[in-house]
Amino acid sequence: MSPAPWRDTMRFEQIEHKGRPHLRLTADDGASAEVSLHGAHVTSWQPTPGRERLYLSPNASHATGTAIRGGIPVVFPQFAGRGPMIKHGFARLLDWRLINASNARTAIFELNDGPATHAYWPARFSARLGVTLAPATLEVDLEIVNEGDAAWDFTAALHTYLRVSGLAGVSLGGLEGAPYFDSANHGSRAPGDGKVVHFSGELDRIYPDAAGPLLLRGANLPPLEITARGFRDTVVWNPGAHLAASIADLGDGEHEHFVCAESATVIEPVTLAPGERWRGTQRLRELPAS
Ligand SMILES: O=P(O)(O)OC[C@H]1O[C@H](O)[C@H](O)[C@@H](O)[C@@H]1O
C-alpha cells in the first residue's frame, strides 16, 4: 500500500505550558511537536496523536535560568564541563525568539548575542533552531553564525531524551565497534565491543566520529532511527538509579523512562571565522514496527 499523500501544510499555534510560551506544530496527518521558547527546547513530538516519543520529566523546571529536564535541550556553546563556561553552555537557559512559523513545515527560533549572553561569553553570534515535521519524522536543525570580527570556537549538542517504558530490553544500535570515551569512568578510552548498547546502571559515553545512524529498539514503541548531519560525535547517557536519585528534577525511578541519544560535536571544537556558519541536524524517524 502506498503511503498517504503528504499535504505540505502545517498549523502553528502559540500556547502556554507551565506558564511559559510554547509553539505547537500540527501536521495534516495529526503529527505534532511542541517547542518552548525557553531554550528553543522541543518538549514533545508525537508522530501519531497520543504516541509521545520524547521524555519530559514531570518535575522539570521551566523557569528562566534553569534547564528543562527532558525533550531536546540545545547545548551551546559548550558541551558539559569542557571549557570555562557553565555546564552545557547557556543556550538552554535563555529565551529564544520565534522568527518564522509561516513557511510550510519549519518553525525557526533565534538567539542572538546581547547582554544576556555576554554575561557568559563575549562572542558575537546568532543561533537558529529549525524544527520540521514530516511523516513519521522530526528534524531539528541548529545553525550557528559568527557575527563578530574575530574567530571563536564552540562545542554543541542536541541532547535528545527519547522516551522508553522501562530500560530492560531497550537497545541502541549503530555504535557497535565504535571506541568511546567513558565519561562515567574519568573519560577513559574504551574499545568498541561489537554489541548494541544496553542500559543497566549509569552509562555516559562519547563516541568520537560516530554519528550513526542509530536505532532505538525495545521502547515499547515502534523502532526509532536517529541520524545526524554536521554533528560528528554521538553521546549516549542514562544516569542509572544511583545518580538519578541525586538529580533534583528527576522523580523517583524516572531514569527508567528515557535514554539520551545526543548528536554532538564535542571532541574537536568547531572554529568559526568572522561571517562563517556551521550547521548540524538531527533527524528522528519512526520505522514500521517489525
Ligand atoms: O544534568 P545536565 O546538566 O542536563 O547533564 C546531563 C548529562 O548530559 C550529558 O549527557 C553528559 O554526557 C552527562 O555527563 C550529563 O550528566
TrEMBL record:
Top-tier EC class: isomerase
EC numbers, comma separated: 5.1.3.15
Keyword annotations of the record: Isomerase
SUPFAM superfamilies in the record: Galactose mutarotase-like (SSF74650)
Domain of life: Bacteria
InterPro entries in the cross-refs: Aldose_1/G6P_1-epimerase (IPR008183), G6P_1-epimerase (IPR025532), Gal_mutarotase_sf_dom (IPR011013), GH-type_carb-bd (IPR014718)
Annotated catalysed reactions: alpha-D-glucose 6-phosphate = beta-D-glucose 6-phosphate
UniProt similarity note: Belongs to the glucose-6-phosphate 1-epimerase family.
Name of the protein this chain belongs to: Putative glucose-6-phosphate 1-epimerase
